[in-house]
Amino acid sequence: MSITLNALLKSPWVFHLSSGSCNNCDIEVLDCLTPRFDVERFGIKLAGSIRHADVLLVTGSCNRKSSARIRKIYEDHVPRPCVVVAIGECSLSRGLFIDSYNCPLPLDRIIPVNVYIPGCPPKPEAIIAGVVKLIQRLKASV
Fold first, then answer.
1. Among residues 47, 79, 99, 128, which one has the fewest Cβ atoms lying within 10 Å of its Cβ?
2. Which of 124, 122, 132, 130 shows the shortest CA–CA distance to 42?
3. What band does 5 get if pLDDT is binned at 50, 70 and 90?
4. What does the DSSP 8-state code read for residue 101?
């Protein structure tokens, strides 16, 4: 097992990317970091830069401006191996913006997504469970 994959499994650092959200999912992601939910007990830490992250958490509906930037960030700046987690209905299926001219594609048509966490907004328990299940699935595949 490579050192990078081992670090991803033991202590994943996540980068939170808001792609045009209403901030409900963003608040729930930040709520996971509070002492009440204490996501750091799983070794998960919030990274300040995408260049230091193992996991990319994406919230919000991808609009025309953010779609190109998300693709560029994923292709040029994300270290490999990196997994992508789509959080909330907007990033999964564009939510209530599905018929909007400004949100042409869901996230999984822009970059590959490894885990989907549905909800509007999803509860912190669901976000934590999704990331922990992702780690368990990666351990099983190694």
1. 99
2. 132
3. low
4. T
